[in-house]
Protein backbone atom coordinates (compact mmCIF):
# COMPACT_ATOMS: atom_id res chain seq x y z
CA UNK A 1 0.00 0.00 0.00
CA UNK A 2 1.10 3.57 -0.59
CA UNK A 3 1.72 5.52 2.56
CA UNK A 4 -1.37 7.00 4.19
CA UNK A 5 0.44 8.08 7.35
CA UNK A 6 0.24 11.85 7.85
CA UNK A 7 3.34 13.92 8.47
CA UNK A 8 3.99 13.84 12.21
CA UNK A 9 5.88 15.91 14.76
CA UNK A 10 5.42 19.32 16.34
CA UNK A 11 3.32 21.35 16.00
CA UNK A 12 0.06 19.48 16.53
CA UNK A 13 -1.93 18.57 13.44
CA UNK A 14 -5.50 19.77 12.96
CA UNK A 15 -7.62 16.86 14.26
CA UNK A 16 -10.62 17.83 12.12
CA UNK A 17 -8.84 17.07 8.86
CA UNK A 18 -7.42 13.79 10.15
CA UNK A 19 -11.00 12.68 10.89
CA UNK A 20 -11.85 12.71 7.19
CA UNK A 21 -12.21 9.32 5.47
CA UNK A 22 -9.06 8.50 3.49
CA UNK A 23 -8.46 5.77 0.93
CA UNK A 24 -4.90 4.56 0.29
CA UNK A 25 -3.56 6.23 -2.83
CA UNK A 26 -3.44 4.07 -5.97
CA UNK A 27 -0.40 1.85 -6.43
CA UNK A 28 1.37 1.38 -9.76
CA UNK A 29 4.51 1.77 -11.80
CA UNK A 30 3.17 4.31 -14.31
CA UNK A 31 4.43 7.80 -13.49
CA UNK A 32 4.62 11.29 -14.94
CA UNK A 33 6.98 14.23 -14.87
CA UNK A 34 5.50 17.56 -13.83
CA UNK A 35 7.17 20.93 -14.25
CA UNK A 36 5.86 24.37 -13.26
CA UNK A 37 5.67 27.22 -15.77
CA UNK A 38 5.06 30.90 -15.02
CA UNK A 39 3.56 32.90 -17.85
CA UNK A 40 1.94 35.63 -15.75
CA UNK A 41 1.74 37.33 -12.37
CA UNK A 42 -1.04 38.96 -10.37
CA UNK A 43 -1.31 40.81 -7.08
CA UNK A 44 -3.74 39.56 -4.44
CA UNK A 45 -4.90 41.64 -1.51
CA UNK A 46 -4.77 39.59 1.69
CA UNK A 47 -8.24 40.54 3.01
CA UNK A 48 -9.80 39.41 -0.28
CA UNK A 49 -8.52 35.85 0.09
CA UNK A 50 -8.06 35.29 3.83
CA UNK A 51 -10.34 35.65 6.86
CA UNK A 52 -9.49 36.85 9.42
CA UNK A 53 -6.78 38.88 7.73
CA UNK A 54 -3.91 39.54 10.18
CA UNK A 55 -2.61 42.32 7.91
CA UNK A 56 -5.58 43.99 6.17
CA UNK A 57 -3.38 46.40 4.20
CA UNK A 58 -1.09 43.70 2.86
CA UNK A 59 -0.99 42.36 -0.68
CA UNK A 60 1.29 39.88 -2.37
CA UNK A 61 2.62 39.18 -5.84
CA UNK A 62 1.75 35.68 -6.99
CA UNK A 63 2.09 33.53 -10.11
CA UNK A 64 -0.66 31.91 -12.12
CA UNK A 65 1.08 28.56 -12.34
CA UNK A 66 0.82 26.35 -15.41
CA UNK A 67 2.00 22.72 -15.13
CA UNK A 68 3.56 20.70 -17.93
CA UNK A 69 2.89 16.99 -17.35
CA UNK A 70 4.42 14.15 -19.39
CA UNK A 71 2.98 10.63 -19.10
CA UNK A 72 6.09 8.45 -19.18
CA UNK A 73 4.50 5.25 -20.57
CA UNK A 74 3.17 7.00 -23.68
CA UNK A 75 5.15 10.23 -23.90
CA UNK A 76 1.90 12.20 -24.11
CA UNK A 77 2.16 15.73 -22.74
CA UNK A 78 -0.56 17.58 -20.89
CA UNK A 79 -0.92 21.11 -19.56
CA UNK A 80 -2.85 21.78 -16.38
CA UNK A 81 -4.17 25.34 -16.79
CA UNK A 82 -2.80 27.99 -19.16
CA UNK A 83 -2.27 31.08 -17.02
CA UNK A 84 -3.33 34.42 -18.53
CA UNK A 85 -3.59 34.97 -22.26
CA UNK A 86 -0.72 37.17 -23.44
CA UNK A 87 -3.03 39.41 -25.49
CA UNK A 88 -5.59 40.06 -22.74
CA UNK A 89 -5.42 43.84 -23.21
CA UNK A 90 -6.88 43.54 -26.71
CA UNK A 91 -8.84 40.29 -26.25
CA UNK A 92 -11.01 41.55 -23.38
CA UNK A 93 -13.25 44.61 -23.11
CA UNK A 94 -11.78 47.93 -22.04
CA UNK A 95 -13.65 47.89 -18.72
CA UNK A 96 -12.50 44.34 -17.97
CA UNK A 97 -8.89 45.24 -18.77
CA UNK A 98 -9.07 48.14 -16.30
CA UNK A 99 -10.06 45.71 -13.54
CA UNK A 100 -7.30 43.26 -14.46
CA UNK A 101 -4.69 46.00 -14.50
CA UNK A 102 -5.85 48.11 -11.55
CA UNK A 103 -7.23 45.54 -9.12
CA UNK A 104 -5.10 42.49 -9.95
CA UNK A 105 -2.06 44.33 -11.42
CA UNK A 106 -1.72 41.73 -14.13
CA UNK A 107 1.70 41.18 -15.72
CA UNK A 108 2.49 38.86 -18.62
CA UNK A 109 5.83 37.04 -18.63
CA UNK A 110 5.32 35.27 -21.97
CA UNK A 111 2.84 33.21 -23.96
CA UNK A 112 2.72 29.59 -22.77
CA UNK A 113 3.07 28.31 -26.33
CA UNK A 114 6.27 30.30 -26.80
CA UNK A 115 7.65 29.13 -23.43
CA UNK A 116 7.08 25.54 -24.52
CA UNK A 117 8.77 26.11 -27.88
CA UNK A 118 11.82 27.60 -26.18
CA UNK A 119 11.95 24.47 -24.00
CA UNK A 120 11.80 22.12 -26.98
CA UNK A 121 8.09 21.23 -26.89
CA UNK A 122 5.86 21.75 -29.94
CA UNK A 123 2.52 23.24 -28.70
CA UNK A 124 0.71 21.58 -31.63
CA UNK A 125 1.74 18.17 -30.28
CA UNK A 126 0.45 18.67 -26.73
CA UNK A 127 -2.07 15.90 -26.11
CA UNK A 128 -4.50 17.71 -23.79
CA UNK A 129 -5.23 20.92 -21.94
CA UNK A 130 -6.69 20.24 -18.50
CA UNK A 131 -8.52 23.30 -17.20
CA UNK A 132 -9.09 23.67 -13.45
CA UNK A 133 -11.92 26.13 -14.18
CA UNK A 134 -13.10 28.87 -16.49
CA UNK A 135 -11.60 32.03 -14.97
CA UNK A 136 -9.45 34.45 -16.96
CA UNK A 137 -6.18 33.75 -15.10
CA UNK A 138 -6.31 30.02 -15.89
CA UNK A 139 -7.68 29.71 -19.42
CA UNK A 140 -4.83 31.40 -21.28
CA UNK A 141 -4.45 31.42 -25.06
CA UNK A 142 -5.30 28.08 -26.65
CA UNK A 143 -4.70 28.81 -30.35
CA UNK A 144 -1.19 27.22 -30.53
CA UNK A 145 -2.51 23.90 -29.17
CA UNK A 146 -4.18 22.73 -32.33
CA UNK A 147 -3.87 19.01 -31.58
CA UNK A 148 -4.90 19.16 -27.93
CA UNK A 149 -7.98 17.69 -26.35
CA UNK A 150 -9.71 20.36 -24.23
CA UNK A 151 -10.71 18.81 -20.93
CA UNK A 152 -12.66 20.06 -17.91
CA UNK A 153 -16.00 20.18 -16.16
CA UNK A 154 -19.26 21.26 -17.86
CA UNK A 155 -19.29 24.83 -16.52
CA UNK A 156 -15.69 25.36 -17.65
CA UNK A 157 -16.87 25.36 -21.26
CA UNK A 158 -20.28 27.00 -20.77
CA UNK A 159 -21.36 29.68 -23.24
CA UNK A 160 -20.65 32.52 -20.80
CA UNK A 161 -17.18 31.23 -19.84
CA UNK A 162 -13.93 32.84 -21.03
CA UNK A 163 -13.04 29.77 -23.04
CA UNK A 164 -16.14 29.55 -25.17
CA UNK A 165 -15.07 31.92 -27.95
CA UNK A 166 -11.60 30.40 -28.15
CA UNK A 167 -13.05 26.90 -28.37
CA UNK A 168 -15.36 27.98 -31.20
CA UNK A 169 -12.46 29.56 -33.07
CA UNK A 170 -10.54 26.27 -33.02
CA UNK A 171 -13.65 24.32 -34.00
CA UNK A 172 -13.15 21.85 -31.17
CA UNK A 173 -15.59 19.86 -29.06
CA UNK A 174 -14.33 19.74 -25.47
CA UNK A 175 -14.09 16.52 -23.48
CA UNK A 176 -16.41 17.06 -20.54
CA UNK A 177 -15.59 15.24 -17.32
CA UNK A 178 -18.87 14.29 -15.65
CA UNK A 179 -17.99 13.82 -11.99
CA UNK A 180 -21.31 12.07 -11.37
CA UNK A 181 -20.67 9.40 -14.02
CA UNK A 182 -20.21 5.65 -13.62
CA UNK A 183 -16.41 5.81 -14.09
CA UNK A 184 -15.92 8.16 -11.13
CA UNK A 185 -14.17 6.72 -8.06
CA UNK A 186 -13.07 8.00 -4.65
CA UNK A 187 -9.35 8.61 -4.29
CA UNK A 188 -7.46 9.69 -1.18
CA UNK A 189 -9.53 12.30 0.68
CA UNK A 190 -11.75 13.03 -2.32
CA UNK A 191 -15.11 11.49 -3.16
CA UNK A 192 -14.95 11.94 -6.95
CA UNK A 193 -11.97 11.26 -9.18
CA UNK A 194 -11.43 10.18 -12.79
CA UNK A 195 -8.44 7.98 -13.74
CA UNK A 196 -7.39 9.84 -16.90
CA UNK A 197 -4.96 7.28 -18.39
CA UNK A 198 -6.47 4.26 -16.66
CA UNK A 199 -3.19 3.43 -14.92
CA UNK A 200 -3.50 5.61 -11.81
CA UNK A 201 -0.81 8.09 -12.89
CA UNK A 202 -3.15 11.08 -13.40
CA UNK A 203 -6.42 11.52 -11.52
CA UNK A 204 -8.75 14.41 -12.30
CA UNK A 205 -10.37 15.37 -9.01
CA UNK A 206 -13.65 17.19 -8.40
CA UNK A 207 -12.90 20.10 -6.02
CA UNK A 208 -16.00 22.31 -6.38
CA UNK A 209 -16.68 25.54 -4.56
CA UNK A 210 -14.62 28.28 -6.12
CA UNK A 211 -16.53 27.36 -9.27
CA UNK A 212 -19.19 24.74 -9.84
CA UNK A 213 -16.93 22.27 -11.65
CA UNK A 214 -13.48 23.17 -10.34
CA UNK A 215 -11.00 20.35 -11.05
CA UNK A 216 -7.68 19.43 -9.43
CA UNK A 217 -5.19 16.84 -10.70
CA UNK A 218 -3.32 14.21 -8.69
CA UNK A 219 -0.13 13.11 -10.47
CA UNK A 220 2.01 10.13 -9.45
CA UNK A 221 5.66 11.12 -9.90
CA UNK A 222 7.54 8.11 -8.45
CA UNK A 223 6.44 4.47 -8.61
CA UNK A 224 5.35 1.97 -5.99
CA UNK A 225 6.13 0.60 -3.49
CA UNK A 226 6.98 4.08 -2.16
CA UNK A 227 4.98 6.15 -4.62
CA UNK A 228 4.90 9.92 -4.29
CA UNK A 229 2.39 12.37 -5.76
CA UNK A 230 1.91 16.01 -6.68
CA UNK A 231 -1.60 17.44 -6.30
CA UNK A 232 -2.12 20.59 -8.38
CA UNK A 233 -5.21 22.45 -7.27
CA UNK A 234 -5.84 25.62 -9.28
CA UNK A 235 -7.91 28.01 -7.15
CA UNK A 236 -8.94 25.50 -4.49
CA UNK A 237 -7.15 27.88 -2.11
CA UNK A 238 -5.89 31.39 -2.84
CA UNK A 239 -3.60 31.69 0.18
CA UNK A 240 -1.09 28.98 1.19
CA UNK A 241 -1.89 29.09 4.90
CA UNK A 242 -5.45 27.92 4.15
CA UNK A 243 -3.84 24.53 3.52
CA UNK A 244 -1.65 24.59 6.63
CA UNK A 245 -2.27 21.38 8.56
CA UNK A 246 -1.26 22.80 11.93
CA UNK A 247 -4.04 23.03 14.51
CA UNK A 248 -3.01 26.62 15.26
CA UNK A 249 -3.97 27.60 11.70
CA UNK A 250 -7.48 26.16 11.74
CA UNK A 251 -8.78 29.68 12.52
CA UNK A 252 -7.98 30.86 8.99
CA UNK A 253 -10.79 30.57 6.45
CA UNK A 254 -11.41 31.65 2.91
CA UNK A 255 -13.07 35.00 2.35
CA UNK A 256 -16.55 34.38 0.92
CA UNK A 257 -17.18 37.90 -0.40
CA UNK A 258 -15.15 41.06 -0.84
CA UNK A 259 -15.68 44.70 -1.71
CA UNK A 260 -14.24 45.69 -5.06
CA UNK A 261 -12.10 48.76 -4.26
CA UNK A 262 -12.68 50.04 -7.79
CA UNK A 263 -16.47 50.08 -7.33
CA UNK A 264 -18.61 52.75 -5.71
CA UNK A 265 -18.57 52.80 -1.91
CA UNK A 266 -22.21 51.69 -1.69
CA UNK A 267 -21.76 48.84 -4.20
CA UNK A 268 -22.58 45.35 -2.85
CA UNK A 269 -19.76 42.97 -2.10
CA UNK A 270 -18.67 40.50 -4.79
CA UNK A 271 -18.82 36.74 -4.24
CA UNK A 272 -15.36 35.20 -4.31
CA UNK A 273 -16.74 31.68 -4.83
CA UNK A 274 -19.62 29.89 -6.52
CA UNK A 275 -20.43 28.13 -3.21
CA UNK A 276 -18.38 29.05 -0.13
CA UNK A 277 -19.42 25.94 1.81
CA UNK A 278 -18.32 23.65 -1.01
CA UNK A 279 -15.08 25.63 -1.29
CA UNK A 280 -14.41 25.10 2.43
CA UNK A 281 -15.02 21.37 2.01
CA UNK A 282 -12.61 21.17 -0.93
CA UNK A 283 -9.99 23.04 1.09
CA UNK A 284 -10.44 20.63 3.98
CA UNK A 285 -10.00 17.61 1.71
CA UNK A 286 -6.95 19.16 0.08
CA UNK A 287 -5.49 19.83 3.54
CA UNK A 288 -5.97 16.15 4.30
CA UNK A 289 -3.87 15.36 1.24
CA UNK A 290 -1.28 17.92 2.32
CA UNK A 291 -0.98 16.04 5.62
CA UNK A 292 0.29 12.97 3.75
CA UNK A 293 4.01 12.40 3.80
CA UNK A 294 4.00 11.32 0.16
CA UNK A 295 1.84 14.11 -1.29
CA UNK A 296 2.92 17.63 -2.22
CA UNK A 297 0.11 20.11 -2.96
CA UNK A 298 0.65 23.12 -5.22
CA UNK A 299 -2.07 25.68 -5.94
CA UNK A 300 -2.07 28.19 -8.80
CA UNK A 301 -1.12 31.26 -6.77
CA UNK A 302 1.60 29.82 -4.53
CA UNK A 303 3.70 32.93 -3.90
CA UNK A 304 5.96 31.02 -1.48
CA UNK A 305 6.92 28.31 -3.97
CA UNK A 306 7.31 30.90 -6.73
CA UNK A 307 9.72 32.89 -4.55
CA UNK A 308 12.04 29.91 -4.10
CA UNK A 309 11.61 28.18 -7.48
CA UNK A 310 12.01 31.10 -9.87
CA UNK A 311 15.38 30.97 -11.55
CA UNK A 312 15.82 27.34 -10.49
CA UNK A 313 16.51 25.62 -13.80
CA UNK A 314 16.10 22.16 -12.27
CA UNK A 315 12.58 22.82 -10.94
CA UNK A 316 11.10 25.14 -13.56
CA UNK A 317 10.22 23.95 -17.08
CA UNK A 318 12.04 22.59 -19.03
CA UNK A 319 13.99 21.30 -16.04
CA UNK A 320 13.51 18.09 -14.11
CA UNK A 321 10.49 19.51 -12.29
CA UNK A 322 8.88 18.19 -9.14
CA UNK A 323 9.46 14.48 -9.71
CA UNK A 324 11.89 14.09 -6.82
CA UNK A 325 10.31 16.69 -4.55
CA UNK A 326 10.52 14.44 -1.49
CA UNK A 327 14.15 13.45 -2.00
CA UNK A 328 15.12 17.07 -2.65
CA UNK A 329 13.06 18.56 0.18
CA UNK A 330 10.92 20.81 -2.03
CA UNK A 331 7.74 20.59 0.05
CA UNK A 332 7.58 23.78 2.09
CA UNK A 333 5.80 25.06 5.15
CA UNK A 334 2.42 26.82 4.96
CA UNK A 335 2.62 28.70 8.24
CA UNK A 336 1.32 32.26 7.88
CA UNK A 337 4.23 34.66 7.40
CA UNK A 338 3.63 38.12 5.99
CA UNK A 339 7.39 38.62 5.59
CA UNK A 340 7.24 36.17 2.68
CA UNK A 341 5.13 38.63 0.66
CA UNK A 342 6.59 40.45 -2.32
CA UNK A 343 4.79 43.19 -4.22
From TrEMBL:
<dbReference type="InterPro" id="IPR051013">
    <property type="entry name" value="MBL_superfamily_lactonases"/>
</dbReference>
<dbReference type="GO" id="GO:0016787">
    <property type="term" value="F:hydrolase activity"/>
</dbReference>
<keyword id="KW-0862">Zinc</keyword>
<keyword id="KW-0378">Hydrolase</keyword>
<comment type="similarity">
    <text>Belongs to the metallo-beta-lactamase superfamily.</text>
</comment>
<feature type="domain" description="Metallo-beta-lactamase">
    <location>
        <begin position="63"/>
        <end position="273"/>
    </location>
</feature>
<dbReference type="InterPro" id="IPR001279">
    <property type="entry name" value="Metallo-B-lactamas"/>
</dbReference>
<protein>
    <submittedName>
        <fullName>Metallo-hydrolase/oxidoreductase</fullName>
    </submittedName>
</protein>
<dbReference type="GO" id="GO:0046872">
    <property type="term" value="F:metal ion binding"/>
</dbReference>
<keyword id="KW-0479">Metal-binding</keyword>
<dbReference type="InterPro" id="IPR036866">
    <property type="entry name" value="RibonucZ/Hydroxyglut_hydro"/>
</dbReference>
<dbReference type="Pfam" id="PF00753">
    <property type="entry name" value="Lactamase_B"/>
</dbReference>
Amino acid sequence: MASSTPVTGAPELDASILALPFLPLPEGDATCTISPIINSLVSLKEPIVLYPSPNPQASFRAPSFVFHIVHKPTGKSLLYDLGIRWDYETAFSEDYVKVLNNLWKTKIVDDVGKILEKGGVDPAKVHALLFSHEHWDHTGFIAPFTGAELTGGPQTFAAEANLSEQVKALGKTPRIIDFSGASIQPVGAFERGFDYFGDGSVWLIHTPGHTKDHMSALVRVTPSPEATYVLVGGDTAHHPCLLCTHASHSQYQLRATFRNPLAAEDAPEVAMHFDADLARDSIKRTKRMEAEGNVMCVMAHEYGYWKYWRGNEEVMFPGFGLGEWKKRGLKGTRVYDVTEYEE
